[in-house]
Amino acid sequence: MEYRQLGNSGLMVPAFSLGTGTFGGNNEFFKKWGDIDVKEASELVDICLEHGMNFFDTADLYSTGAAEEILGKAVGNRRNDVLISTKTTFPMGEGPNECGSSRYHIIRAAEDSLRRLGTDHIDIYFMHGFDALTPVEETLAALDNLITSGKVRYIGASNFSGWHLMKSLAISEKRGLARYVVYQGYYSLVGRDYEWELMPLGLDQGVGLMVWSPLGWGRLTGKITRNSPPKEGRIAQGGAAGGPSVEDEYLFRVVDALQDVATEVGKSIPQVALNWLLQRPTVCNVVVGARNADQLKQNLGALGWKLDEAHIAKLDAASHREPTYPYWHQKGFDQRNPKPTQW
What we know:
The structure is a single chain. By secondary structure, the protein is α/β, with parallel strands linked by helices. 37% of the residues lie in helices and 15% in strands. It has helices at residues 28-31, 38-50, 66-75, 103-117, 136-148, 162-175, 198-205, 248-265, 269-278, 293-300, 309-318, 327-330; strands at 3-5, 12-14, 16-19, 55-57, 83-88, 122-127, 152-158, 180-186, 208-212, 283-288. The strands form 2 sheets. Strands 3-4-5-6-7-8-9-10 form an 8-stranded parallel β-barrel, surrounded by 6 helices. A two-stranded antiparallel ribbon has the order 1-2. Helix 3 (66-75) packs across helix 4, helix 8 packs across helix 9 and helix 8 (248-265) packs antiparallel against helix 11. The longest helix is centred in the last third of the chain and has 18 residues, at 248-265. The mean pLDDT is 94.
């Protein structure tokens, strides 16, 4: 297992972490992801630890807290051997204060997560989304309090726009508050929007990236090809709902390139897609999901080797998108502007 620095912090994390969106499956949305119980989760945790993958990512939203509970039981007395990240912001009930990033909600949500996980601290605590109704100062002060109390070690942001993240970083610096050291965002060979604003920001400000849905919301598993519609997995079960849209022809163009490279290097399509991500700027961790032990072991096959420059160039070309404004305009002044990876 390769270990990387988590942004500009001193924490070292494995290149892969296990996402727990497949744990629980107690509602219609998450059941399409998976319905792993404690016994199955314990098997996955065992496999992860055998491979040095001691980092587990969850959220209070996942199956309305059930994923946290299952993860806590699966880890058991091995808590000191693992890193756990969880998140809050999205609704956990019907009340007006059961969502958002207010001091009230954050403190309560953190205590609830600690109880469900069966632990006394959270290694990385993410704001799962940006709350425009709560002053950023209030959010960061609450998170800073959690750190000084020892209940949280590091904080991160997820699904923020570039200006949301930069404003937060500036206020942390101005007020002497704990700083977001990691961003958790969507990034894949069929979803490269992260590269336009957030990647340059991360490079400039020392914010690392934890990638969620690295296989394009289940589209880069190798089960969907130009001549083979999805027959199993999340997409086949209607799981594309709530995720990023991808035009068929664009997807097939990327999958065709992935298949060519996979054949040349003797790896599977998802292993190549994951390996490509591991070589992108700012990426410090890739959150991989698994519905069973076989899928997890397959994902681990993306580690321990590297695509060469020719293969990376082929995948970059196949997944290229023309820049939106203002990036197409900045492209004309690239001698004074750092080059985004898609130019």
